[in-house]
Amino acid sequence: MRKVLLTLEIKGLEYELDPATPLNPPEGFRRISPLGKIPGYVDDALEISDSSVICQYLEDRYPEPALYPRDPALRARARWFEEYADTKLLEVLGPPLFFERVVKPRFLKQPTDEDRVAANIANGIPPALDYLETVVPETGWLVDGTFSIADLSIPSFFANARMAGYEVDAQRWPRLAAYLARAWAHPAWGKRLAAEAAMG
Ligand SMILES: N[C@@H](CCC(=O)N[C@@H](CS)C(=O)NCC(=O)O)C(=O)O
Q1: Is the predicted pLDDT of residue 200 greater than 80, yes or no?
Q2: Pocket test for ligand 1, best of 7, 18, 37 (most atoms within 8 A of CB)
Q3: Whole-angstrom Cα distance, residue 47 to residue 57?
Q4: DSSP strand E in 12-124: where?
Q5: Which of 104, 147, 174, 180 is most deeply packed, by most CB within 10 A?
């Protein structure tokens, strides 16, 4: 979702945001998103869902500025980071962290299962961060040093983790912590996070 907004903003495209949540989907949402998941996207040409599919479409239709490398191998590498985020980071930063600490208390009026959160912080999250620590560069961006979709995708999940009160330990994962700080200081990220903060 945030990845799509960042892509639209970086490409300078006008958009309107329908503040739908999976709990109160708007009329006809299943037509746009048959899985019932957010985000869905509508323009003059199509109705489509899934953030990776939407971002790829935006890249194909509005190639500049590019968010996917031209070189096939580097392009695959960028997509791999999207996939890693959507699979592994969702698994460890989604249900057992963001859902527990943010969605349950704020939207479902249910208490956080802090035992589940603590077990996940101790055992679930570290292997994913260990992997990322081996692939993030000391300077610059994830794929070939150039800012790309990978730098929207991976930091998005950590922005949610931060909303859930989880910060990457800079002692244990110094490269990753520095990389995330660098990403969030990127102008596009700065604008997006400020807009989110203003929405409360
Ligand atoms: N891979 C999908 C995942 C979308 C997703 O899981 N969306 C969540 C909210 S961020 C959702 O709508 N969950 C409701 C549900 O699973 O029913 C994407 O990146 O668009």
Answers
A1: no
A2: 37
A3: 11
A4: 40-42, 47-49
A5: 180
Tokens 């922005």 found at: 159
Q: Is residue 173 a contact partner of residue 158, using CB atoms and an 8 Å limit?
A: no
Residue position matching structure tokens 């040409």: 45
Q: How high is the pLDDT of residue 40?
A: 95
Give the chain's domains with CATH numbers.
2-61 (3.40.30.10), 72-199 (1.20.1050.10)
Residue whose Cα lies nearest atom 16 of ligand 1: it is: 37
- The whole-angstrom separation of Cα 198 and Cα 9 is 17
State the average pLDDT over residues 99-105: 97
Ligand 1: lining residues by beta carbon, under 6 Å: 1, 22, 36-39, 50-52, 86
Q: How far apart are CA 24 and CA 31, in angstroms?
A: 15
Single-letter amino acid, residue 185: A
Q: Is the pTM of this model over 0.85?
A: yes
User: How are the residues of the chain apportioned to helix, strand and coil, as percentages rounded to the nearest 5?
Assistant: 60, 5, 35
Compute CA 125 distance to the chain's CA centroid, rounded to the nearest angstrom.
16
pLDDT band at 157 (very low <50, low <70, confident <90, very high): very high
